[in-house]
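Deviations from the work plan: none for this task. Representative record:
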Amino acid sequence: MSAGDKTGEFEQVVRAYSADLYRYAYWLCRNRHQAEDLVQEAFARAWKGWADLREAALAKAWLIAILRNEHARSFSRKRPELASGEADESELPPVPSFEAGIETAQIVNRLPAAYREPLVLQVLGGFSCSEIAGIIGTSAGAVMTRLTRARQALREQYTEAGKRRVSK
Amino acid sequence: MNCLEFRRQKLADPRRLSAQAQSHLQGCPGCTEFARGVDETERSLEQALAVPVPEGLADRVLLGRRGAGRVAWRTWAIAAAVVLAIALGFGHLKNPPSDQYARLAIEHVQLEPESFTTVRHADAEAFRSILEDFGGTLKQPLGRIRYIKLCPLDEGTGWHIVFETPGGLATLILVPGKHPGSTETATVGGWNALARPTRTGYYAVVTASLQMTSRVDSAVRERIEWKS
């Protein structure tokens, strides 16, 4: 492949997947500045290893895996800061009657990371259970269990939020 | 396939049902109702997860890659950006947009959705102290404070505050050192904002409707005394 082809292909991939990558990064770290940094870093690494990508069809999953590694690296460097953010969320007051989308985002925020991550990959990324298993390094069965529990938890919280709205 | 197996499969991957699951769904009213509920939750989930993506993200990624290997090109790009910024600056001086501060406030709120879902430094005393620094005295509480953060804003920093009101959550942004010529209003993407100059800078109120912004702004003017 010529240098021009390589550059053109990379640009197409950046334009096609940067939004998906940003959203995935946002739900990993829940901070928009960190999310953009992660996307920049992931694409910089992807460019360096572009020759390792055998099929363009696999680019999205490959990029997600790179970004996930970057997040793990930055998380290990900044653990205390992130841990204090987690503590704040545990103090969330009852959901006020506000826009439904914000209420859902709040419920998703409360899910444990192990449930939230496969859910984001499936709902936003459109990945199947076995593809998610490949990205996060576990079995398809384990992913199915996590997704089932995540959606059960969401449904329960929706029901509770609905009851709170009725009782107000 | 029985109902339990169907429901497990539907919850694990609602959009990829197997042929057996599809066939079970045809003949089971209980599972049809269950599937409808899951699909409804899924739609709402999809909307909530699709947080706004910063404008120009792909361009910045590509610019970063090009810049990594071409120092000369980057130098020219920076020089061009400086010239463009100066030209735009003169353009703005000549003809400044009348709602730029209100729009900036909305843009900031859209880019920080976590301000509505996270409780952060929710301290009434901290809010009072920030207001004092900004030249305001709180005579009466505005509502329960949920979120306070110092954010990068308008080439400087500003305080981003979210509080509860009877009509829902409202955002108050305090930006020192910038002075809109008059009160500005803007409506963008389902959000409404009002930016009002003060002696030390300006404050902006952002809510989900014009009526609510107006109510919150009235409360701000009644309950905060601004130094003249």
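Chain A touches chain B through 54 residues (CB under 8 Å).
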